[in-house]
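Board notes, transcribed. Complex of a protein with flavin mononucleotide.
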Amino acid sequence: MSAPATGTNVDMQVTLGPLKLKNPVMTASGTFGYGTEYRELYDPAILGGVFLKALTMAPRPGNKPWRIYETPSGMLNSIGLQNVGIEEFFEKKEPFCRELAGKGTAMCANLAAQTVEEFQQLVERLETTDCIAAYELNVSCPNVKKGGCQFGTDPTLLRELVAAVRPGTKRPLIVKLAPQVTDVAEMARISVDAGADIISLINTFPAMAIDAEKRRPILATVTGGLSGPAIKPIALRMVYAVRQAVDVPIIGMGGIMNWKDAAEFLLAGASAVAVGTANFVHPTTPVEVLEGLQDYCRRHRYARVSDLTGALELP
Ligand SMILES: Cc1cc2nc3c(=O)[nH]c(=O)nc-3n(C[C@H](O)[C@H](O)[C@H](O)COP(=O)(O)O)c2cc1C
């Protein structure tokens, strides 16, 4: 237990193994573009970190509409990893990443690929810039060589992928777990055994919506990924389970809409949090989360926000 916090000086820095963040508030991949889009609303340099939109080797146009649908307390998306591709990232997006990195915000690349080799190529290419602080492997992608099963739901594929990417970089390696598994703690253990430094979770849940009048699915891809408040209790339970299973730091996400939600993730065992869907609803949510966490620490006399991690008092 740290000394009681006095005045306004709460230490907001967090250390996630090899990744140091000036504060624990990040933005989740795919909900914050490359950071540039939100500049008019607030200075993204206040963030501890940004998970960039997924990058693939070639540009991807994404899926056809409808590909976003609002559900009661959540959002369904089937964007389909739309992104500019790695070369255009270097031409057009990297300068802003460099600017933010220069101000101490950890710019984390989210990597998506359908083969182990493509993941390796992405890392190899990104090693040529010094503005990337860490790699987050989006393991919710189907492996085309292994018949389309997802890296993140097949323990053998997951181990193979993480072990293959690990030697390609000394930067922190984050594995972002898929929630649709029987035992998420086991997937975390496998990732850490194979070389992951940090676990982030959760990604969206496979889900669908139907228009009964038309007797048709709403999304053009029939199914999509569910995010937002609807998934928060499940995400909390998974963060809590992973915290018991592995010794590496956790970045928690899934339905964080305000500082209270963020505090819950920290108490459950996360060392940092990422705001996702909330960026579409109230784009200044990350600012409010940061201020709210600071205030919470003051009120509860925590000198360091890092003291909240896993501080849940069990009945
Ligand atoms: C529109 C949209 C696009 C997303 N794109 C990605 C992506 O490219 N890569 C990834 O790993 N996760 C992606 N995600 C998942 C989020 O990063 C996050 O894990 C998930 O939405 C849960 O957090 P939330 O409930 O706060 O949104 C996306 C989510 C949404 C809503």
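The CA atoms of residues 273 and 281 lie 18 Å apart. Residues 28-31, 53-54, 75, 77, 79, 81, 110, 138, 176, 203-204, 227-228, 231, 253-256, 276-277 surround flavin mononucleotide (CB under 6 Å).
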